[in-house]
Design a protein that fits this description.
By secondary structure, the protein is of the alpha/beta class. The protein is built from eleven helices and 15 strands. Strand 6, helix 8 and strand 7 form a beta-alpha-beta unit. Helix 10 packs across helix 11.
Length: 316
């Protein structure tokens, strides 16, 4: 089923995924069902489900998130064509992508930083969790992607977000220790979204790209830590499987900023979670990195990585 995926990537999988899960993971790199969540700023679970039922949509609830659903009988395009979607009453989003905002747990009235926000999946989710209160600074380095973010914010009825066009690595200079919480969902090699039927999804993948991204991710994360107040929470996430972009980035930060952050265990019940790796290619990571989480790719879940950091000492 995984014919066409880069052989180097497949070889690395054998070192990342436990042997008993490897076959299922390799089979998971096919198009997953469409998943979405209710936009609680404009609708609610009961109202949206009633509208979709009237139009013949069969949806399956997600056990760990009451506002999330799996579309089982129609296409993504048919869902997008509904009046409810056109009105911004829902947001099409991968299930794994919904986890980082839930782990961050933004509260009404808080100041939140979304360092690499476009196109706005997690920004709009956090705005809904905060009921449009407090403040979210949604930053992106790309003007084109920022336009998409602004369009999504408007459609979803979001009013507590200020957008920012800047390099994530430099954001801390404008907002030193300003935020209560930061979401650092960094640009990555997208391995968790590989689709064997869509060569475009993996065509540009290479080990060189993975290593270049890792360096970029390190500096974005460090900037977010500097922009977060002491006592604040930083969530680092990617939709890739590469240890260089995941555990190694956290390990680098712990070494570069000793005593500034602590890695906190993530109490979140989702099928297919695995503890962070403790070593990679003869390099041992800091023991606390085992508290980070990997979402193993499955029929409904993209591969993802999530780390929760608490800032315990000033670094600005």
């Amino acid at each position: 089923m995984d014919q066409g995926l880069p052989q180097v990537f497949l070889d690395r999988l054998t070192q990342i995924i436990p042997p008993y899960q490897l076959a299922a993971v390799r089979e998971s790199f096919t198009r997953r069902p469409t998943t979405f969540r209710v936009n609680t700023l404009k609708s609610n679970r009961e109202t949206l489900l009633a509208k979709l039922s009237e139009l013949g949509f069969a949806v399956e609830p997600v056990d760990w998130y009451s506002d999330a659903f799996i579309l089982r009988n129609k296409s993504k395009q048919e869902l997008i064509d509904t009046p409810a979607y056109q009105n911004g009453e829902m947001y099409v989003q991968g299930l794994s992508s919904m986890i980082p905002p839930l782990v961050l747990d933004p509260q009404p009235g808080e100041k939140i930083c979304d360092v690499a926000a476009a196109p706005g999946s997690k920004t709009t989710q956090m705005a809904a969790l905060m009921n449009n209160t407090g403040e979210i600074i949604a930053n992106d380095r790309s003007k084109i992607r920022l336009f998409k973010l602004v369009a999504n914010l408007k459609l979803q009825g979001v009013t507590n977000v200020r957008t920012s066009l800047a390099e994530g690595e430099a954001l801390w200079k404008r907002f030193p220790q300003y935020f209560d919480k930061a979401l650092v969902d960094v640009p990555c090699s997208l391995e968790g979204r590989f689709d064997v039927k869509n060569p475009k999804s993996y065509r540009d993948w290479s080990l060189r790209k993975v290593k270049l991204l890792s360096t970029h991710q390190q500096h974005i994360l460090r900037s977010a830590v500097s922009a977060t107040r002491v006592g604040g929470v930083i969530i680092y996430s990617t939709c890739t499987l590469s240890p260089e972009e995941n555990e190694q980035v956290i390990d680098w930060l712990l070494d570069k900023e000793p005593g500034v952050v602590e890695v906190e265990s993530i109490d979140f019940s989702v099928p297919g979670l695995q503890a962070g790796l403790t070593q990679w290619e003869r390099h041992d990571f800091a023991p606390e990195i085992e508290r980070t989480l990997r979402v193993i790719p499955s029929e409904v879940m993209e591969g993802f990585y999530i780390a929760k950091l608490i800032k315990v000492r000033s670094n600005v």
